[in-house]
Amino acid sequence: MKKTSSKILALGLSLSMFLTACGAGGAGTATEGTTAAGASSGAAETTAAAGGASGESFVIGNPQPLTGVNAQVGESANMAAALAVKVINEAGGFNGVPVKLVNYDDQGSPEEAVKIANKMIQVDKVNAILGSLTSSNVLAAGGIYDEAKIPTIGTGNSPTWMLQGWEYVFRAGLNTALSMPHIAEKMVELDIKTVAVFRGLDDAAKSSAEAFVEQAKKAGIEVTTIESYTEGDTDFSGQVAKMINTKPDAVFCSTNGPTQAIFAKQLRQLGYNKLCFNREGIPVDTLNVAGEAANNWVFSYPYVVYGDIEEATDPEMKEFLQLYVDEYGVMPFHDCAYRSWDAMMVFWEASKIAGSNDSDAIKDAISQIKDFKSLGGILDFTDGTREGLHTLNDYIIADGKYLDFNQWLEEGNYEKLAE
């Protein structure tokens, strides 16, 4: 299969028209384009032109959380998806058919996700689904997409929804079931004997924590305590005190982005200075909020969220970031932007392989994608799992920067930390 071409990505650099700051729709309301504070005008026109009359476009439904605690994350995902549509349409769309993106605010609510799923299928007549980044929403709506035979690429990280056997539902990003055994192995290498766990109650946080606990026990690591929180909480002093009192060698954290910085600061303020392992990548915004409290946090993930284009070393990532900054004037807020971009590129590649925009043809073509370069690494869907990503990178935060964790270890920093 052809890799994502830098020439294709560079198409966006020559575009003179920028996306407009379109307001996100409320519950059950579809919007075309995306919300982008500070973005210049043009998005509504771009997407509308891509749409055309019914049957003259390839319609992709895009349900994401645009209100609530993950609104900024959802907006970043939408911005990347809209940018991908722009690049794809400039290159001729899907087999000569322009792509139309229809956005919905799923509010991070499974109930809302079900309502939106039915509306996208029955009213919008979508040809494919991108999202949601909220795993519990994919779990709630995935069966509806599958029954309707709509090719879907979910952008959440939870293992749960990919265990349902839905043949039309895929993932181009990370399944945390891949990273949990890996993190446990790293702990064994470091002779970590005990670990305290902090987790949320949403599907992604809960299932990731459960997967980690299972792997930790298999590896002979004692879980001293499992403390939980409810989304929206900001005071974790009670949970932190209980965790510290168990004197763990390390902490494992399974939370959503907005909670990470608050928890990190409270953990360090109460005196815990050992390594902390996170279930997913830690975005630069969390580093900025947490400050020094983010140091010595470790994560195994396909990528990091950069604060500056020049920090990126991968050529494809650099080109994507340049496109994004040129379009919106800001860096991506969260790695969900990477996930949405990669998902759109997979749909595009599948349309090329299929030579058709038929739903079954697209679905079958995704399963043929191999050696496809994405922002998260090489994607390979040929093993029948409907998972494309199978590799990880290890990072640690030190002095407010993302460093290669294995190199950090080789330099003797872990021994220095123990002192």
**Could you spell the SSE succession in H and E letters?**
HEHEHEHEHEEHEHEHEHEHEHHHEEEEHH
The helicity comes to 40-55%
Number of helices: 15
The radius of gyration computed from the alpha-carbon positions, rounded to a whole number of angstroms, is: 21 Å
Mean pLDDT: 87
Beta-strand content? 15-25%
- Assembly status: single chain
List segments where confidence is low: pLDDT < 50 over at least 5 consecutive residues.
1-29, 33-54
Structural class per helix/strand content? alpha/beta
The span between the termini is 50 Å
The best one-word shape is: globular
The biggest sheet amounts to: 7 strands, mixed
Number of strands: 15
- Main-sheet strand order equals 8-7-9-10-11-14-15
Question: Which key features would you list for this structure?
Answer:
419 residues, alpha/beta, seven-stranded mixed beta sheet, six-stranded mixed beta sheet, 15 helices, 41% helix, globular, disordered N terminus
Describe the structure.
This protein has 419 residues and is an alpha/beta fold. The protein has 15 helices and 15 strands. The strands form three sheets. Strands 8-7-9-10-11-14-15 form a seven-stranded mixed β-sheet, sandwiched between helices. Strands 1-3-2-4-5-6 form a six-stranded mixed β-sheet, sandwiched between helices. The protein has a two-stranded antiparallel sheet with strand order 12-13. Helix 2 (43-51) crosses helix 3 (71-90), helix 3 (71-90) runs parallel beside helix 12 (336-354) and helix 12 (336-354) crosses helix 13. The longest helix has 20 residues, at 71-90. Residues 1-29 and 33-54 have low confidence and may be disordered.
